[in-house]
């Protein structure tokens, strides 16, 4: 998988090794084996095959005490969100806990009372998620300091296996067959956008991310 945010690009390979991009070269990021890694205003976070959650601190990933998650996203406005492995419940970590965590204290995650298999946030226009039926949902706001949310809106028109939000609010998704779509006409007055537009690719795509005008697949 691959994730971009705050001008940084991180990825994991098939051997669960994490990397970051510098120029045109990939460099190993820490020494911990991770299946999922995410970068954003909240820093760099990841999960391993046992669904333990890690934060990148002082040059390596440090395991956190608290909730187990199969996917995390650090792209929000300081908060971190994630999905539990068994119940697929969405949880949120407040910005004060994400920034202040030094790998010692037990983290207090807050349930967002929604079942999702993939969830992602951006600093603008809220968060997006995919439920077990591949339906798309949007949350207009999540308050980083409290993790309170504005509720969920179903977004019709396409089913997705994963979705990502860019720093500027751009939204891209991947269907189960590997087709890529962009959500169009997203504005502050209509944060869920208006329609999906196909993005031509020369091959089926498994994962994508977007930042600073670049789409990574």
Describe the structure.
- Strand 18 (171-174) and strand 19 (180-184) form a beta hairpin.
- This protein is 3% helix and 46% strand.
- The chain contains 1 helix and 22 strands.
- The strands form 6 sheets. It has a 4-stranded antiparallel β-sheet, with no helix packed on it. A 4-stranded antiparallel β-sheet has the order 5-6-7-8, with no helix packed on it.
- The chain has 217 residues and is mainly β.
- It starts with a strand and ends with a strand.
Chart the SSEs and their pairings:
Layout: E1 2-5, E2 8-12, E3 17-22, E4 25-33, E5 36-40, E6 43-47, E7 53-57, E8 60-63, E9 71-73, E10 80-83, E11 89-93, H1 95-100, E12 110-115, E13 118-121, E14 127-130, E15 136-139, E16 153-155, E17 162-165, E18 171-174, E19 180-184, E20 195-199, E21 209-211, E22 214-216
Tally of separate helices? 1
Main pleated sheet: 4 strands, antiparallel
Helix content: under 10%
> Going across the major beta sheet, what is the strand order?
1-2-3-4
InterPro entries: Beta-propeller_rpt_TECPR, Tectonin_beta-prop
Keywords: Lectin
Protein name: Fish-egg lectin-like protein
GO molecular function: carbohydrate binding
Keywords:
217 residues; mainly beta; four-stranded antiparallel beta sheet; 1 helix; 3% helix; globular; lectin; carbohydrate binding; Fish-egg lectin-like protein; Tectonin_beta-prop; Beta-propeller_rpt_TECPR
In a nutshell, what does this entry contain?
One of its GO terms (molecular function) is carbohydrate binding. By secondary structure, this protein is mostly beta strands. It is built from one helix and 22 strands.
């Amino acid at each position: 998988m691959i994730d971009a945010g705050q001008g940084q690009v991180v990825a994991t390979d098939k051997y669960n090794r994490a990397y970051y991009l510098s120029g045109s070269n990939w460099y190993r990021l820490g020494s911990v084996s991770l299946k999922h890694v995410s970068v954003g205003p909240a820093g760099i976070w990841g999960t391993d095959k046992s669904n333990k959650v890690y934060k990148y601190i002082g040059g390596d990933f440090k395991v956190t005490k608290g909730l187990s998650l199969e996917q995390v996203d650090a792209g929000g406005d300081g908060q971190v969100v994630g999905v539990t492995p068994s119940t697929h419940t969405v949880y949120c970590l407040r910005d004060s806990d994400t920034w202040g965590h030094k790998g010692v204290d037990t983290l207090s995650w807050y349930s967002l009372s929604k079942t999702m298999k993939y969830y992602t946030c951006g600093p603008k226009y809220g968060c997006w998620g995919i439920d077990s039926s591949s339906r798309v949902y949007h949350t207009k706001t999540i308050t980083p300091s409290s993790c309170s949310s504005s509720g969920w809106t179903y977004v019709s028109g396409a089913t997705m296996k994963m979705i990502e939000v860019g720093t500027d609010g751009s939204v891209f998704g991947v269907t189960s067959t590997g087709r890529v779509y962009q959500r169009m006409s997203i504005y502050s007055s209509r944060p869920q956008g208006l329609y999906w537009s196909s993005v031509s690719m020369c091959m089926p795509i498994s994962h994508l991310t977007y930042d600073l005008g670049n789409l990574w697949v």
